[in-house]
């Protein structure tokens, strides 16, 4: 509608009149609509970035910066790249293909998408065929010819697929596994898994009355005998007749299938089962949407809180499809499976309550490893030997195991145990088999930094990489000669790609980038696809042949953005006075900065979100609006500091776990050092410093203002956590254990417990539809501040916003308030 009106040159009011809506109510409605359209156009139109930035410009629809390529991956023949682009707020993505040799990318039509080389897929042993799932259906591609065959066309989605060792294709839907025989095309049901009680067999009468009925009533006895004969016939037929599918598996009605993995020969299915009543939410966990489409308040389901969530762990079951037998996998083969790893924590909490805790060994709850970044399975089969390795973690977050499974006995053997007194990282868990060997490769933080290890059967692990840097994103080369990886060897904030020889351990650097990047190795192993950025340059795609020169493939950053002279923040190391290593930070200096001027500068410290996130790096920040806001602040005479406080990513295990059971305290110490550094090195008035941040950054803003009230003169907390007992279990239980076990840690780390310390102006801003940090978090803190009779806070709510704001108008309103707060309190 808007596009048609703009093209015709007619206003909404004119359209209303021409359409016969000349009555006053329609005219008023049209005027309101026209006004609304103009406001939205002002917010979303590409800004004309001039010498002086404005909030309207930098908080506008980010499409003005360029619609960048996302999710890039290689074609099967390594000659082209596929990627997607999606305008801000657009409901669908557009997909593209671009030749590595250069030229313009071609947008794919809808009818071409199923035939486009898919990012995810599995290959047969000789890598002649690729099987993949598209829109829930199964396809097979002959790589030599490019011919594609669709194997299913149905509304029930295919959930997984694999090639078997003889070349047949197996796939599964829900809990049913199928096999397609390549020689005959026969479609076979390998296993039908029913999470239900097994139907009873024909039973002989047991009670007196039943026996009497069968003895006295001939018809009843005949029915019983016939039923028994039919059952025996069916059992015998299923054993001897090869044309009949195998019987269903009945595994009880108390659990549900969490994961399913089929062996390479198709003879075994490994299942992970979980309590069927366990859910990601409780019945009362709802989030009210006050602007429901029907005019009413909608109750939107929301996740459970860590104080109530109680993950039950998972149970492993092995199904032998040849013998139709099942084996429950015991966890006794896991080293430390029954250790009381929280004994000290429980004793400390018991002592506070005037009680005594007695430690006892008991089996711990275990589950398949849930890495937050990988795309692989926690169950890895050795294709040629039909062996399986499983990565498991304790629900208490203290242990990670890689174990092999004896398929005959159903017993696990620990190949590697990673124990951490704080918590095992939910990143850096990639692992697998080296082809045609019994050797495993994996990532581990056991030395304090994530590194690559090789584990030979019966021997101690050997490191392939060593040093005070972080290794991530490992890729086994197509011939298994090298393991490729990303690491920040040169500087914690600079990424490059390396490879290490599996046999010799020789290591070589493949890229010479000076920012941040992600990489994908081409299928032929000859080139790297890079998604790379610098401090003032958003991510673009690059191609680099192994041993060759890097070549830029895309240029989707807009001219308007590129032409503006953005300030590239300096990355500095702030000395710690609290026993930590240097704290890395980005520094933005005021335009026309004069280190000797008599009037000292005001300053702002930005606190990044997520806690475990790195932002003081040499790449383009994911906080692109904040990056532009910081440029604006420098134009207004502020120094801006953006710190990777303790707990941040990129600096190793000890930095990550420094906040264990003590969130918000080491970080505030780092902020104190940040203020001191600016006063000593950037001519900042330590009495004119403010702070702000969202999510974890909002939490940290609270903790700074509540526990160190003289440190900052004002703070703004966006979508902030106020009470960790109300946050989710997967994140919080890592760092603080659980409230029932470690109430000390929660009371020590939750801002609402320290709210009485507020003395300086505070701005609290939350989205009502935030299903990550609930709006209720802010509501509870506001009431607490009211009851504490604290007059120095204000709130702003955003009725349509989730955790990550979507609407430009909301972003603009939010940052107008932040800017106003700093202008009022710091100058």
Automatic annotation (TrEMBL):
Stored SUPFAM superfamilies: alpha/beta-Hydrolases, DPP6 N-terminal domain-like
Any single GO BP term: proteolysis
Protein origin, superkingdom: Bacteria
Domain Dipeptidylpeptidase IV N-terminal: start-end pairs: 378-536
Gene Ontology molecular function: dipeptidyl-peptidase activity; serine-type peptidase activity
Domain Peptidase S9 prolyl oligopeptidase catalytic, chain residue ranges per copy: 631-826
Pfam family, one: Peptidase_S9
Protein name: S9 family peptidase
Species for this entry: Shewanella atlantica
């Amino acid at each position: 509608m808007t596009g048609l009106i703009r093209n015709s040159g007619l206003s909404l009011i004119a359209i209303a009149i021409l359409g016969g809506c000349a009555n006053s109510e329609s005219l008023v409605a049209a005027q309101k609509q026209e006004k609304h359209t103009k406001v939205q156009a002002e917010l979303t139109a590409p800004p004309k970035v001039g010498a002086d930035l404005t909030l309207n410009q930098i908080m506008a629809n980010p499409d003005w910066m360029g619609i960048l390529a996302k999710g890039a991956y290689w074609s099967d023949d390594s000659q082209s790249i596929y990627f997607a682009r999606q305008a801000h707020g657009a409901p669908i993505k557009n997909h593209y293909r671009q030749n590595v040799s250069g030229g313009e990318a071609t947008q794919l039509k809808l009818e071409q998408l199923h035939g486009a080389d898919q990012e995810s897929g599995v290959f047969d042993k000789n890598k002649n065929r690729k099987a993949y799932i598209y829109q829930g259906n199964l396809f097979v591609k002959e790589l030599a010819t490019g011919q594609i065959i669709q194997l299913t066309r149905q509304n029930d989605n295919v959930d997984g697929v694999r090639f078997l060792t003889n070349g047949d294709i197996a796939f599964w839907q829900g809990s049913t596994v199928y096999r397609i025989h390549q020689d005959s095309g026969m479609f076979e049901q390998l296993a039908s898994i029913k999470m239900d009680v097994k139907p009873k067999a024909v039973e002989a009468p047991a009670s007196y009355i039943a026996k009497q009925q069968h003895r006295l009533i001939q018809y009843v006895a005949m029915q019983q005998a016939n039923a028994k004969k039919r059952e025996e016939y069916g059992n015998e037929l299923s054993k001897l007749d090869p044309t009949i599918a195998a019987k269903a598996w009945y595994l009880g009605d108390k659990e549900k299938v969490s994961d399913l993995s089929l062996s390479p020969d198709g003879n075994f299915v490994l299942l992970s089962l979980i309590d069927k009543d366990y859910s990601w939410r409780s019945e009362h966990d709802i989030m009210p949407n006050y602007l429901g489409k029907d005019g009413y308040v909608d109750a939107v389901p929301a996740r459970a809180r860590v104080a109530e969530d109680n993950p039950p762990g998972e149970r492993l079951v092995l199904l032998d499809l040849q013998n139709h037998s099942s084996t429950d996998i015991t966890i006794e083969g896991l080293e430390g499976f029954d250790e009381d790893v929280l004994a000290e924590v429980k004793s400390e909490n018991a002592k506070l309550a005037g009680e005594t805790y007695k430690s006892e060994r008991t089996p711990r709850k275990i589950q398949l490893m849930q890495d937050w970044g990988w795309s692989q399975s926690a169950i890895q089969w050795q294709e040629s030997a039909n062996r399986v390795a499983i990565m498991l973690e304790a629900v208490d977050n203290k242990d990670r195991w890689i174990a092999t499974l004896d398929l005959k006995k159903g017993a696990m053997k620990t190949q590697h145990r990673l124990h951490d007194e704080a918590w095992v990282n939910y990143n850096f868990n990639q692992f697998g088999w080296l082809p045609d060997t019994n050797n495993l490769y994996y990532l581990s933080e056991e030395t304090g930094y994530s590194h690559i290890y090789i584990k030979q059967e019966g021997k101690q692990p050997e490191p392939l990489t060593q040093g005070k840097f972080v290794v991530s994103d490992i890729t086994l080369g197509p011939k298994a000669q090298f393991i490729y990886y990303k690491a920040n060897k040169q500087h914690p904030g600079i990424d490059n790609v390396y490879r290490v020889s599996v046999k010799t351990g020789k290591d070589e650097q493949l890229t010479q980038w000076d920012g941040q990047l992600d990489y994908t190795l081409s299928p032929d192993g000859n080139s790297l696809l890079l998604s790379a950025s610098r401090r003032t340059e958003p991510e673009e795609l690059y191609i680099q042949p192994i041993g060759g020169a890097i070549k830029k493939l895309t240029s989707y950053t807009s001219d308007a953005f590129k032409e503006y002279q953005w300030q590239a923040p300096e990355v500095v190391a702030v000395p710690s006075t609290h026993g930590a290593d240097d704290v890395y930070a980005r520094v933005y200096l005021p335009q026309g900065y004069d280190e000797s001027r008599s009037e000292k500068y005001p300053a702002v410290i930005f606190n990044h979100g997520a806690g475990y996130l790195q932002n003081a790096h040499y790449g383009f920040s994911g906080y692109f609006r904040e990056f532009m806001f910081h440029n604006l602040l420098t134009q207004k005479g502020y120094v801006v500091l953006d710190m990777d406080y303790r707990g941040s990513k990129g600096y190793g295990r000890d930095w990550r776990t420094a906040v264990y059971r003590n969130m918000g305290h080491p970080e505030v110490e780092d902020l104190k050092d940040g203020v001191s550094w600016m006063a000593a090195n950037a001519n900042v008035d330590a009495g004119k410093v403010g702070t702000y941040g969202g999510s974890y950054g909002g939490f940290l803003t609270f903790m700074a203002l509540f526990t160190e009230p003289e440190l900052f003169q004002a703070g703004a907390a966006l979508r902030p956590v106020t009470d960790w007992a109300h946050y989710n279990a997967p994140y919080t239980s890592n760092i603080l254990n659980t409230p029932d076990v470690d109430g000390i840690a929660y009371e020590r780390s939750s801002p609402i417990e320290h709210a009485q310390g507020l003395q300086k102006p505070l701005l609290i801003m939350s989205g009502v539809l935030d299903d990550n940090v609930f709006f209720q978090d802010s509501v509870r803190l506001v009431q607490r501040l009211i009851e504490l009779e604290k007059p120095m806070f204000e709130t702003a709510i955003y009725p349509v916003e989730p955790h990550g704001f979507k609407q430009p108008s909301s972003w603009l309103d939010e940052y107008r308030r932040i800017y106003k707060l700093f202008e009022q309190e710091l100058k």
